[in-house]
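#struct-help
A.M.: can someone run this one for me? Single chain, 138 residues.
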Amino acid sequence: MDQQQARIKILLAKTALDGHWRGVSVVARALREADMEVILVGMALAEEIVAAARDEDVDVVGLNVGGRIEVVERVLDLLMTEGLNLPVLAGGTIAPKAAALLRARGVAVFPPGSALPDIVAAVRTLAAEKQGREGKQE
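D.P.: on it. Structure tokens below:
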């Protein structure tokens, strides 16, 4: 990693009480192996996710969706309310119509079976885009 390039920090959270931890755990490990700092908050409400993202000063928010996107939409709304211009990615069981709604709101969507290198690359891209936006604001 380039000396001047900061380590990417991503917050991962589950948004449903579905009990399925394998996906988020595998993604967390892949991101750590890609030399990213991963904050795994586990199961959390939208307000808790946004508070953790703010408090931890993360670059990207990753959400494990258990089939319902309402919490993701609430996270997006709260991030906007808080003035946090953070990229969001969502993975897990997401219906095609729900995935389209999330993509329309700028969320990178990864359904079951998505390749880990694609997720890692997306996080790198999202973090770089965020850094580019912040650089333009200064």
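A.M.: thanks! Strands lie at 9-14, 37-43, 60-66, 88-93, 108-110.
D.P.: also worth noting: Residues 62 and 136 are 24 Å apart (CA to CA).
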